[in-house]
Amino acid sequence: MASKKKKQLNDPADSPAEFADVLERCRRGEREAQRQLYDLCHQQVYRLMVRTVGLQDAADLTQQVFLQVFRKIDQFAGRSKFDTWLYRLAVNEGLQHLRKGHRWKFQPLTREPMSNQRDLQRDEQKELLEQALARLEPELRSIFVLREVERLSYQDIAETTGIPEGTVGSRLNRARRELQQHLTELGWEP
Amino acid sequence: MNCPDVQELLSAYYDGELPDDKHADVKVHLDGCSECARQLAGFEKLSALATSVATPDPPSEIWEELERQLDEEPAFQPVEQKRRSPLTTPRLLTLAASLLIAVGIGWWAYQSWHAPNEHDHLAVDFDEYLELFPQDPAKAQQLLAAKYDGHPVEIEAAAEQLGYRPSVADGLPDGMTLVSTHVMKMPCCTCVGCVCERDDGSKFASFEHDDEQPVWFGDRPAVAASCCGKRCSLMQVDSDLVVGWQQGRRHITVIGARDLEEINQLVAWLDERKRVRPK
Asked: Given B11, B135, B236, which is nearest A172 (Cβ)?
């Protein structure tokens, strides 16, 4: 059966009018527009969730974030960037999840017997990073991921997390130093 | 600049967030200080590690489940649009304005005659409560109690003060325990509010009161549902559920329910306790 071709949404920076139209249609509850918005943004939300709450719960929380997006889209006034608003919902959802006592659950990587040395090394590094991130305070972890993985500016991190822009640098100092310490304790050799 | 000054600015320097003059000052220091330069190199290695680790692709089931929920839960349908769409022509705007004035006068007269405006405050107080509860349930409960002349009591003492035995007094389902009980003097009645804890440490609140209290939750959309045969009113507040139902002659409101399965469990449990309780 031929699947219906989905209309792709371009990056908002390239075509702001098209993006504004999709947001307006999302406000009207149009499913096609919701799908377009989801297609454009879900990878960044999922990536953030994998690194802040762990792979185990990342899919469920990504889904929760988009439920919040479609429910609260009337509250997005366009004064901030949509990305910042989306990250704010995602960070809050992740932090609430962790405050409710959910912990980062590790899934030890299953390695193929024939994995080459490079794959093994990459898998080990991934495990080390996840274990070290899990030891970091959730707020520091979010700030670190917003900067190092999502490449947000300090101003956008401040808007996303609700902390003053002047304190983003000092929080990142703490996050980076503590993360290095945890990695060293876990045997990381850069 | 000395080492502590530079180390405080090191992330901002590394991320290119310093003004030009400060950036130049830090650079001068780094060129002559091996310890600060070593810390900066550590940041670079950390970045290399963070960017070298790939994230797996999101599973396609996320959208499928999301779409199913969007279809099933009217609470997530955008009600604003339904209100907005008829107001697109001046004629309909006039009609809407007339209706608004008429309804407004009627509502004002009804409110003036029938009820004090304490309910407005209640909606605001519950907004604050709902916002604080997921972060700090104990504090949320204390603040609400402070506003409504509430005080912490043992559950048996609450029964004496209320003149009836609260539904949660005979225990909770397995994996849940009663943490605190407050008797509060709300405008509707003297009611009992309890904080309960699940085995994993997360909490929810239960209120038992004389009448149904939709006013607590302002204009949030509610959905009617059948939970173990009882008519329940459900609301989504952020990632939590709020549910209310009639239990005997009184009403129960649970704030912070995790999902429908948990709601069904609570409704069935409290109903069963009531039936087996000695008269």
From this structure: B11
**Domains of chain A, residue spans:** 11-105, 110-190
Ranges of chain B whose pLDDT falls below 70: 73-124, 214-215, 218-219, 274-279
Helix or strand or coil: residue B208? strand
Residue B93 contacts residue B87 (beta carbons within 8 Å): yes
Q: A183 to chain B: which residues are within 8 Å by CB?
A: 46, 49
Roughly what angle, to the nearest 10 degrees, separates helices A117-135 and A138-148? 130
Q: What is the CATH number of domain B117-276?
A: 3.30.200.100
Closest CA–CA distance from residue A96 to any residue of chain B (Å): 7
User: What's the CATH fold of domain A110-190?
Assistant: Arc Repressor Mutant, subunit A (1.10.10)
Q: Does A43 touch chain B (CB under 8 A)?
A: yes
- C-alpha span between B26 and B31 (Å, rounded): 9
Contacts of B60 in chain A (CB under 8 A): none
User: What is the pTM (predicted TM-score) of this model?
Assistant: 0.56
- Closest Cβ–Cβ partner in B8, B11, B62 for A59: B62
Q: Which fold has domain A11-105?
A: Rna Polymerase Sigma Factor; Chain: A (1.10.1740)
The pLDDT of residue A6 is 47
Helix residue spans in B115-252 (DSSP H) = 118-132, 137-147, 155-162
Give me the residue from B15, B50, B202 closest to A101, CB to CB: B202
pLDDT for A16 equals 79
Instruction: Provide the ipTM.
Output: 0.84
Subunit contact B58:A42, Cβ cutoff 8 A: yes
Q: Is A181 on the interface with B (CB under 8 A)?
A: no
- Helix, coil or strand: residue B67: helix
Q: pLDDT tens-digit profile of A45-78?
A: 999 999 999 888 999 999 999 999 998 888 887 7
Compare CB distances from B8 to A27, A38, A173 and report the shortest one's residue.
Answer: A173
Look-up of token digits 């609430």? A96
On whether any CB of chain B is under 8 Å from the CB of A47, the answer is: yes
Q: What pLDDT sits at residue B92?
A: 45
Report the residue count for chain A.
190
Sign of the CA dihedral running B60, B63, B67, B68: positive
